[in-house]
Specification:
This protein is mostly helical. It is built from five helices and no strands. Helix 1 runs antiparallel to helix 5 and helix 3 packs antiparallel against helix 4.
């Protein structure tokens, strides 16, 4: 299971680096900071899935999860959300070192 979490962390980190590079290129081109929100990126990549996730959250969980919660996340920059997801998945897949040390019996 740790492998799956680490692999997901790597995927999210790769997406974050790519999104950061695109924002950096656009910022240099526009001569001002450009931070693309997650909603814009997600709707450009796969517009059907964002509607599917919205309806699923509203029908199966609670409608208040979509309006304040998910809308706030979708308004954040893509690279920041992906970095946060990469960190969370890395922490879930992290193997702790033994407390007593490496050379204990």
């Amino acid at each position: 299971m740790r492998f799956v979490f680490r692999l997901a962390s790597l995927v999210f980190l790769t997406i974050a680096v790519l999104a950061g590079a695109v924002d950096a290129i656009q910022s240099v081109s526009a001569s001002e900071p450009v931070l693309t929100p997650l909603a814009v990126t997600w709707s450009a990549v796969s517009p059907n899935t964002i509607a599917y996730v919205a309806t699923t959250l509203m029908q199966h969980l609670h409608p208040s999860l979509w309006d304040p919660g998910a809308m706030w996340v979708l308004a954040q920059p893509t690279f920041a959300v992906m970095l946060a997801l990469a960190l969370l998945f890395w922490m879930a897949g992290y193997k702790r070192r033994p407390f007593a040390g490496r050379f204990t019996a």
